[in-house]
Amino acid sequence: MDIVKNIDKLPPNDLRSLTMILKYVDSPSDKGLYLHGDDPLQNITLMAGMMNQLARKGNDVGIIHFPTFLIDLKSSFSTNESNDLEDIMKIDYLLLDSIGEENVTSWSRDEILLTILSYRLINHLPTFFTSIYGYNDLKKVYTLRKGDEMKAKAIISKIKALTNEIMQDLT
Fold first, then answer.
1. Residue 80 — very low, low, confident or very high, per pLDDT cuts 50/70/90?
2. Under 8 Å CB-to-CB from 162, ≥6 apart: which residues?
3. Strands 93-97 and 61-65, how do they pair?
4. Residues with Cβ < 8 Å from 121, sequence gap 6 or more?
5. Please, which contacts does 76-84 make with residues 24 or more away whose CB atoms are closer than 8 Å?
6. For residues 129 and 144, what is the distance between their CA atoms, to the nearest angstrom?
7. What is the pLDDT of residues 9-49, one digit of tens each?
8. Tens digit of pLDDT for each residue in 92-143?
9. Of the candidates 14, 43, 4, 36, which has an alpha carbon nearest to the alpha carbon of residue 132?
């Protein structure tokens, strides 16, 4: 497998992350993975390798850099271009990269992210995430102002229901 290079040189937590990813590729389930740590490049490299393996097995996969997706989606409104939000929601395996690193607004959080998460949760579609934030820090990111705690909690609750958490330790 492409993502198994220099396995003997990996720190214990990285080995644990890789083991969970390999286990998922061998035995996929409805519950995806939430990989977070200080090195976004390492996070996306590991998860993209997993998505590649799922695609090689004939699955439809999508990898979305979430901050860029939101910018593209917003700009499509002024140009009347079609957006592919519906396609993204329905794809078999979806990876949302760099979650929490977008310009968080009530629109991006409540109308876009929550819509994607709700659809995928209801329809039991495996969803994967990379982030520099763990669940608790991500909750803070999505709390825009006083009174938003419940909205942020709803986002985190859905992400937790969709995933198993993996923390990359780069020490």
1. low
2. 31, 32, 34, 117, 120, 121, 126, 127
3. parallel
4. 158, 161, 162
5. none
6. 21
7. 555 566 788 889 999 999 999 999 999 998 899 899 999 99
8. 999 999 999 999 999 999 999 999 999 999 999 999 999 999 999 999 999 9
9. 36
Query: In the sheet that 163-167 helps form, which strands lie side by side, from edge to edge?
Result: 61-65, 93-97, 127-131, 32-36, 163-167
3-state secondary structure 69-130: HHHHHHHHHHHCCCCCHHHHHHCCEEEEECCCCCCCCHHHHHHHHHHHHHHHHHCCCCEEEE
Instruction: Determine the Cα–Cα distance for residues 137 and 122; give it in Å rounded to an integer.
Output: 25
Q: Give me the count of residues in the chain.
A: 171
From the list 83, 85, 77, the residue with the least C-alpha distance to 117 is 85
Instruction: Compute φ and ψ for 99, nearest 5 degrees.
Output: -65, 135
Q: What is the structure's pLDDT at 10?
A: 54
